[in-house]
Amino acid sequence: AVAAAMRLGAVLSALRPALPLLLGLSLGCSLSLLRASWSHGAAEERCLAPGPPPPPARGAPPDAAEGRPGPGHEDFRPRIVPYYRDPNKPYKKVLRTRYIQTELGFHERLFVAVLTSKATLNTLAVAVNKTVAHHFPRLLYFTGLRSAKVPHGMVLVAHGDERPIWLMYETMNYIHQHFGSDYDWFYIMQDDTYAQAEQVKALVTHLSINQDVYLGRAEEFIGGDEQARYCHGGFGYLLSRSLLLKLHPHLDSCRNEILSVRPDEWLGRCIIDFLGITCVSQLQGQHYRTYELAKNTEPEKEEEEDFQAALAVHPVSDMTLMYRLHKQFSRIQLDRVYQEIQDLQMQIRNLTALTPAGEAGVTWPVGINAPFLPKSRFEVISWDYFTEQHLFSCPDGSPKCELSGASKADVSEIIESAVEQLNRLYQPLLRFSKRQLLNGYRRFDPTRGMEYTLDLLLEAGTQKGHSHVLAKRVSLVRPLSKVEIIPMPYVTEATRVQLVLPLTVQDLDFVANFLDMFAMNTLDTHDNALLTLLFIYHPYDAQRVGQVDVFAGVKAMVGELEKRYAEVKIPWISVKTEVPSQVKLMDIVSKKHPVDTLFFLASVWTEINMEFLNRCRMNTISNWQVFFPVHFQEFNPALVYRGEQTASSNTDFLRDGHFDRHSFAEACFYNSDYMTARTKLAADILDRDEVLEGMEVFDVFLHYSGLHLFRAVEPGLVQKYTLRSCNPRLSEELYHRCVLSNLEGLASRSHLAMALFEQEQANST
């Protein structure tokens, strides 16, 4: 018995680890058997009722009776569209939209139309444009004038008929035709209306776009139905896209059948008669609040709650009143924001006290990200020292430069703000005034903004008239504000790029590699790019061109390319000069091409590839932006590898080299932009052509174009190491730039130090 018990204990101990698994399997099998029996029982009950299925409930769609969603739920049902291609039709590449927003059918949110007239176009309409127009994503002005002179900065649509009803009819047609498929909401207002743009934008974000909305200040028709209302045009009104689409087919009938003097009444009657929708002032829990101004109103003294909460104010009699209203509402909005910031800061303090860190976890300023904490000495953000007159960290690398421009304005503003904050903190006991800035430090922290530390020499005065001079250190932060997306014109990657390659006698050894890379990456791939060669002859070589042409070998290579690619023509232009000024050379090329040509000014060491050409197309925008890429320059292999390795591996891409910020040889720009800037330059220098020898194309755009200059590193432009020849006849700045480019392109500091160390060791032995 004892032996049996021992054997049983051994078996149980062996099975003990598997007991949870056995119990789980047993429980799972039991539940599955129970579920199967219930399902079988339910099926038998359904089978016991012969005949047709019972009818659906009242109001339910037919599909709902079978357990499928009805037609109202079609938008929420995923549908898989199978891919099918007819084998009998030739294959065509599918053209995808550039933005996913277009492909998914998203719309912009708000379009604003302002109705103006001949009498108010240059007064009230201009005031609207200067106060609230830039707060709306899209705003157009509509007038009945035939040939109205458009004020600067306004987009005006002239219908040619000043009758109010006709103007409203044409405006609604125009909005439907040009913007009906692009926007969800349409806000119509007059130029004698002041609208709080931010409040209007917030309103549409809280409304559903699936309803027919006619929202504004509801008014009764004179002698009409008591239930029907129209939206008063003086206070603006909001139309949804669905309502506009339904209304458009009836506009012609409304124009012929409805008689009215006021355009807002005419539109309201049209919507009511044909769509059965009346104007409302409240919808989906949102109120359209308005305020009617009395005569001789002073906005600064208006303290009524209705005034401060109004989305639209009417009537605005003149420009001055419009500006005063804008100033007052901006002050009201600013006070609300400051109060909200204080409330949030108080909540942050209260919640932080409950955390494990306690009150020590509160960062300064409250609500702003904590300062960046470097993980190594390479991540330490350095401070820049400044005084009221000088800056000791200059963009050009010099140790000291005069404080001017935006930097001077920044320092002055931050000092004034520091003194103001001190007075706000210590008044009425003390009153501070600045005597001198002793020391100033600033740095840009990408996690929070610009940080300042100021040592101020202050004079503190008391209420009794006593004064004392003291030094005080203050810290300030200019936090990063809300990130905004800058609107940019639309560009495509289908633009043809015209490459321009200047060549001198010193460049002949590198032309073959350039042409090979051009043929492989553009001609073989059928990229939309052309090449023009610019042969720069020295006067001595130009005289002997009949006997010995220094560019004969290059011309032979071009001939071979044209034979290999029958559809390709590579023209060349010959120039004779001792000083190959980039601007003078570009003047010659510019005259031989159309104004809409996209130029890529290349160097002979550039290796052309499709990736960079596409970035050249995307980063260059006509009448908006030019692109000056910073190429990657490989170091001297004799110093970097020292005979150990002759080429970089794939893992060392963009490693043994640097981005050459001293070179401006590569540039992408449109011919029209260059011609405009060049015309301004010619008017400035008159006939002093020697000035052009000290300028590059970059300088022309920087000083005479007014366009955005996009200067960025370009990993797609990789150049092999070459010791470039610097022409001493160029300007001192250009020659200095060329020498610096050669020196910094030798090797990194570590490579140079190793080379010097090895040289010293060799000399010592």
Automatic annotation (TrEMBL):
InterPro entries: Chond_GalNAc, CS_glycosyltransferase. Residues 45-79 are annotated as: Disordered. Belongs to the chondroitin N-acetylgalactosaminyltransferase family. This is Hexosyltransferase. It comes from Hypocryptadius cinnamomeus. It holds the Pfam family CHGN. Keywords: Glycoprotein, Golgi apparatus, Membrane, Signal-anchor, Transferase, Transmembrane, Transmembrane helix. GO terms for molecular function: glucuronosyl-N-acetylgalactosaminyl-proteoglycan 4-beta-N-acetylgalactosaminyltransferase activity; N-acetylgalactosaminyl-proteoglycan 3-beta-glucuronosyltransferase activity. It is an enzyme of class 2 (transferase). Its EC number is 2.4.1.-. It is found in: Golgi apparatus, Golgi stack membrane. The keyword Metal-binding does not apply. It comes from the Eukaryota. Residues 50-59 have a biased composition (Pro residues).
